[in-house]
Amino acid sequence: MKAGKELENYVQFVYQKLLDFMDEGAMVSSNVSVIGKSGVKHEFDVYYEFQHLNMRHRIAIECKDWNTPVSKGEVGEFLSKLNDLNNISGMMVAKSGYQEGAKQFAESNGIHLMETKDLPSLGEIVAGVIKEAFLPDEATQGAPFWTLMEIQSGEITGTYFSLPEGKPIVPFFYSKVIAEKMREKLLDAENWVVRGVSQYQLKGFVAQMEVLGVEAAVFYVPYWKEGETDVPMVIIPKEKLKEEYIY
Fold this sequence. Notes:
The protein is of the alpha/beta class. The chain folds into two domains: 3-132, 3-Layer(aba) Sandwich (Trna Endonuclease, Chain: A, domain 1), CATH 3.40.1350; 145-245, Trna Endonuclease, Chain: A, domain 1 (3-Layer(aba) Sandwich), CATH 3.40.1350. The protein is built from eight helices and eleven strands. The strands form three sheets. It has a five-stranded mixed β-sheet, sandwiched between helices. It starts with a helix and ends with a helix. Pfam families: Mrr_cat (PF04471). This is Restriction endonuclease type IV Mrr domain-containing protein. It comes from [Ruminococcus] lactaris.
């Protein structure tokens, strides 16, 4: 198998892991041809789409398994293909990075750039081109959980707060108020916000657990006691999250 093909297959694998539990018409494919508005057929190394809130999201990915950085011209060629399509986001994944001009051009045209070393970090992927679909905002209601997520420059990054006890443990709460009380106890509380975890986002979290190497725990606190320091929690195996909390 050619090295370039291996990269395409790996990118497809990473995104399929992310979407495994998204039952809203998710599809991930490699070497896909799409007809543009001009009638011209465009080929993409990896392509995926999914439905969310009655909207279709489409992302095209170009993989560059080169020993030299990607140039501005290569990014421009990719942009020309995207511009011939409707409602599609673009991403490039490169083995050897990008020239400075390519980075500036991509940023100004909304193309998300990644390197192969970034691929295992699904948290970063979520925070990238599809964050509006998978990350909860202020209006998201917990179904049934609430949790803490990192915030930078007013936006959540896709990183869940975790307890540094051996294997990272991501805490979930049944109460938004109690989650907020726990946040206030953190030394770096300003770096975290409380967010509701919808069923859609819970499925995404479960899909990430194996790759991120984290566990989930529910904090059982019927009501908050001032001065509380030892809050009971129970680890929930991934299989039980899927069987008993996703519906």
